[in-house]
Amino acid sequence: MGLVMGTFSMQSNKQDRTYRKDKIDDDFELSIVCHRPEGLDKLEAQTNFSKQELQVLYRGFKNECPSGVVNEDTFKQIYAQFFPHGDASTYAHYLFNAFDSAHSGSIKFEGFIMALSTLLRGSVREKLTWTFNLYDINRDGYINKEEMTDIVSAIYDMMGKYTYPALKTDTPKQHVDAFFQKMDKNRDGVVTLDEFILSCQEDENIMRSLQLFKNVI
Amino acid sequence: MAAGVATWMPFARAAAVGWLPLAQKTMPKPPVDKKSRSDEILFVNVSGLRFQTWKNTLDRYPDTLLGSSEKEFFYNEETQEYFFDRDPEMFRHILNFFRTGKLHYPRHECIQAFEEELAFYGIIPEIIGDCCMEEYRDRKKENQERLAEDTEAENAGDAPLPPDATLRERLWRAFENPHTSTMALVFYYVTGFFIAVSVIANVVETVPCRPIKGSIKDLPCGEKFSVAFSCLDTACVLIFSFEYLMRLYAAPSRCDFARSVMSVIDVVAILPFYIGLVMPENEEVSGAFVTLRVFRVFRIFKFSRHSQGLRILGCTLQACASELGFLLFSLTMAVIIFATVMFYAEKGTKGTTFSSIPASFWYTIVTMTTLGYGDMVPDSIAGKIFGSICSLSGVLVIALPVPVIVSNFARIYHQNQRADKMRAQQKVRQARIRMAKKGATNAFLQHKEDGGLQDGDGDSTPLCVKNRSAFEHQHHHLLHCLEKTTNHEFTDEVTYSEVCVTDSVGFRTSRSTSLSSQQGATTTCCSRRAKRRAFRLANSTVSVSRGSVQELDTLHVTKTPAGTQYPQSRSSLNARTENLKLNCDDYTAAIISIPTPPANTPDESLPNSPAIPGILRNSRSSTFNTQETVKISSL
């Protein structure tokens, strides 16, 4: 009887050990992946940031992601912390794709910095192009209603449930319709980059707001 | 805010550019950060040990002492450093938390010292990383138990009774703590003596004494000196009964006392005597009566009142009951198996002692425990083979794995307990962390309350708004931008459910901006809470009306029970003023105007409602309250 019990307990121990070993192997493999950015001078030349700003940004980035890359899950977690009211994961997904222009599945420091440079210090055209690429989920050069509805729904998801006035099911749709009303000049159901930029430049509010984020860093 | 979020703030704000083309309203102005942007190295001197770190590192956790403006209190102008008169060794761990985002528990430190340091620096222990959490929990529990024991021992005994204690209380005290008075001590020793005497008498009365003259057989002493022994027995029983009755009288809760183990033992010890008294001198019953006398041996258990060791043994057995039970069960299984096998193996033998399976139990147990009395021995070859297998497996079953099984089961048992405990603790942990986070989410709503989103210039913003950290300002600006993009506002659960209620009631409202008290439909909602909110938008003309508020539901009080709880979040202390229940009759106005879509309105015609929804809150009292209770370091 004791034999039986003893062998059972020994078995489970061994299984535990092998499972743990595999897990440790996996972790070991993952942690080897590491990325170092190019030199400070090169980055300074490529972006609109000063050396000091790059230093501060990199120190923060390296502290959060010691391996030098951000993968999508981490990105979603980080972004979700800014919007505790609602669910930011969908919008974070679109944002991740916008940052990860090379579609490699992870954002390195260079990509991060380039995007920040465009958003904060770029020209109006560059900012609007970046925003267009964000909305254009499948990167075909056109924003259609489905893509826009996805984006707008994702933004409304971030608001959470408790809003005033209460969110109705067709609120995103109304918003999208208003958007297309404004942006789609030739009424062909899609918005191209030129239409987008033109319409935004005509809108004073948008132009003014674009200058708001200059001094974020 | 959780780990390192402050680092990603610029990125989150930059990403807000993506909302701009969608926004239907203008974005609010960003907060102006007057401080210099460049990162600087701070010097922190902790009892002579100098640490240096980036300012950004400390700013990562604005809820702590080092991350908030509270550290300015410790700034030393002459030496240009922050001086803390605390343990430098512990500070190393605290600073590592800021650097890496994970709090570790140093195993060689005292747990209370560690907790005090955490409390000082404003860090909740729930964020200790998983690697150290178990150790921390175990040590903390151990410590608490030890402290509980100590205080119990202290309280239990030796504090003198208040002078007006009743006789009952004094008596109970004397029984429970014999050291308190000489009388109690005397009584304690006397009962102990009599227990011993009684037990020895029980033993001695069965010893054979020399026979009385004229007979050959040896008599047990009990029968030779039956008078003496019965006198002794009677005396002991009288004393025990007296003691039991006194305890019963003195016990504060007689039911509990009657159910306790010791009282059961007392009763069992004296009962045989009384039963013997009332039983008639009958042949049949006296047989049963004799067995009853066996229970007199239970008097020995009365010693456990006198011996700490016995009590501990009892507790240990109680604690290990389940393990012992399983051990017994597995042994029983083995015994049954082998007994069956031996019985059928020996069935054929003539005149075998293995008359039945239960009879074989005895053989199996004796063989497995390697006793081997030899009163039952197998004859057939098969019997001998199985007999030897039985004895070999007995060695293995009992001698070897007993320690292994016992420790294994202790480990598995504790593991299961730990898993359940962890799950339960995890929930508690998450709840506490969520509560701290909730503080952050409510911070934005509170910020709106305080008029922090006014587009006015710096002078008119309330003091409590100004004193928020730069990080908070930026975060609130970000959330405000999101509100503008979607043209909806953040509210809390209460307001939301309420608005739903009023919507469904077909509440059509928009009243003009008069101050008259309104009856009818408004009172359904307003009578419960009349809320007012300061207007933030430029094109609003509704005046703030006075009135009382039943409940300021966006204000929460952080209850800090003396000393044991850490302030949840320095930056978001909202006070729920529960004592602010003002009379509903007093309120003079409740103005609620919700722009309802035309489809909902019933036939009544509505005056033009102002475009802005206005649920007014008593901003004055709220800011007043927040100023009172918010722990702002620089007022």
Radius of gyration of chain B equals 40 Å
Report the strand count of chain A.
5
The biggest sheet of chain A, with number of strands, parallel, antiparallel or mixed sense and barrel status, is:
2 strands, antiparallel
Shape of chain A: globular
Which class of secondary structure composition applies to the elements of chain A? Answer: mainly alpha
Q: Mean of residue pLDDT of chain A? A: 80
Measured by residues with Cβ under 8 Å of the partner chain's Cβ, the largest interface is: A-B, 67 and 76 residues
The class by helix and strand makeup of chain B works out as mainly alpha
Helix content estimate of chain B: 40-55%
Please, what is the average pLDDT of chain B?
A: 71
Low-confidence stretches of chain A: 9-31
Query: SSE string of chain A, helix = H, strand = E?
Result: HHHEHHEHHEHEHEHH
Q: What shape does the CA trace of chain B take? A: elongated
User: Order of strands across the widest beta sheet of chain A?
Assistant: 1-2
Order of strands, widest sheet of chain B: 2-1-4-3
Count of helices of chain A?
11
Rounded to the nearest angstrom, the radius of gyration of chain A is 23 Å
Helix content of chain A: 55-70%
- Which strand-content bin applies to the residues of chain B? under 5%
InterPro entries (chain A): EF-hand-dom_pair (IPR011992), EF_Hand_1_Ca_BS (IPR018247), EF_hand_dom (IPR002048), Recoverin (IPR028846)
Main location (chain A): membrane
Family (chain A): Belongs to the recoverin family.
GO molecular function, one term (chain A): transmembrane transporter binding
In short:
With 217 residues, chain A is mostly helical. Chain A is built from 11 helices and 5 strands; from the N terminus they run H-H-H-E-H-H-E-H-H-E-H-E-H-E-H-H.
